[in-house]
Every structure is written in structure tokens, then in C-alpha cells.
């Protein structure tokens, strides 16, 4: 195979035989130098832009992941403690409810055995909208 070259300035014709081993060696050397230059340029740009080696990025990601996992674990423990405290509180409140019924108007009537717990229930029910509740307290000593 032959490549014909034409010069604009001198008007000369030139040709290049592509069957020669030297030509292929030259083309291979040019391609290799272009690839090496692109690789070196990428490494230099990464160094300038502050992109580290992949091992460093993986280590950074693992550290961030472990920090996030610690936050998730702490949040989960805190939520479990709050849920346990709420269940305990609800159980205590339920232990002081003697009866819960509705009257003719559809209002909830709670009969409690302790004025302290009745006050706590009134406080909690005050935060709920549209709940009509009457709370009665049994005289001391009755159940």
C-alpha cells in the first residue's frame, strides 16, 4: 500500500510505502507517545485538582460510612429508649384507668383512681385536637 503526499508550497509529490516495517514502527511509536502523553496529562490534572489515588478515596469513603453508621446506631438506640419510656409511661397510665366508656353525647369518659394521673391524662389530651373527654376521679380508697 502506498500513501501519496502532495506539498502545497513546493508542488512536489511524495509517497510513503505502508508495507515497510519502519513505517509501522513509527506509527506505533507515535500512537504510544500520544497515549503516554494523555495518561501523564490525566495524572497531572488529577494531582492539580486534588483527586487522590483510588485507595485514598476508598479509605475516605469507608471512614465517612463508619461515621454515618455510628450516627444511625446512636439514633436507633435513642429511638428505642424513647419508645421503651413511652411504653412504660403508657402502661403506668393504663394501670390507673379504672374504666373508659362513652356517654350519650359520644364523649369519652375516663374514670381514674388517682388525681395525679387524671391531671397527667388531661394534660396529654389537651394536645389532641377535637377530642372531647371527661375525666372522673374515684374517691380515695374505692376501685
Would you kindly provide a brief summary of this structure?
With 143 residues, the protein is of the alpha+beta class.
Question: Mind explaining what this structure looks like?
Answer:
By secondary structure, the protein is of the alpha+beta class. Among the domains are: 1-51; 97-143. It is 58% helix and 18% strand. It is built from three helices and five strands; from the N terminus they run ββααββαβ. The chain has helices at residues 21-49, 54-95, 115-126; strands at residues 2-6, 13-17, 97-102, 108-112, 133-137. The strands form two sheets. A three-stranded mixed β-sheet has the order 3-4-5. A two-stranded antiparallel ribbon has the order 1-2. The chain starts with a strand and ends in a 6-residue tail after the last strand. The mean pLDDT is 83.
Write the layout of secondary structure elements.
Layout: E1 2-6, E2 13-17, H1 21-49, H2 54-95, E3 97-102, E4 108-112, H3 115-126, E5 133-137
Amino acid at each position: 500500500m502506498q500513501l501519496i503526499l502532495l506539498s502545497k508550497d513546493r508542488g512536489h509529490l511524495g509517497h510513503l510505502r505502508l508495507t515497510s516495517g519502519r513505517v509501522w514502527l513509527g506509527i506505533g511509536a507515535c500512537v504510544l507517545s500520544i497515549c503516554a502523553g494523555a495518561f501523564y496529562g490525566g495524572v497531572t490534572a488529577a494531582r492539580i485538582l486534588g483527586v487522590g489515588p483510588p485507595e485514598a478515596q476508598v479509605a475516605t469513603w469507608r471512614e465517612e460510612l463508619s461515621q454515618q453508621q455510628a450516627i444511625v446506631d446512636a439514633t436507633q438506640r435513642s429511638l428505642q429508649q424513647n419508645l421503651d419510656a413511652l411504653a412504660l409511661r403508657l402502661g403506668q397510665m393504663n394501670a390507673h384507668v379504672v374504666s373508659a366508656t362513652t356517654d350519650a353525647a359520644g364523649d369519652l369518659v375516663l374514670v381514674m383512681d388517682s388525681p395525679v394521673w387524671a391531671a397527667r391524662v388531661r394534660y396529654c389530651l389537651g394536645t389532641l385536637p377535637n377530642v372531647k373527654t371527661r375525666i372522673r376521679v374515684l374517691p380515695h380508697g374505692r376501685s
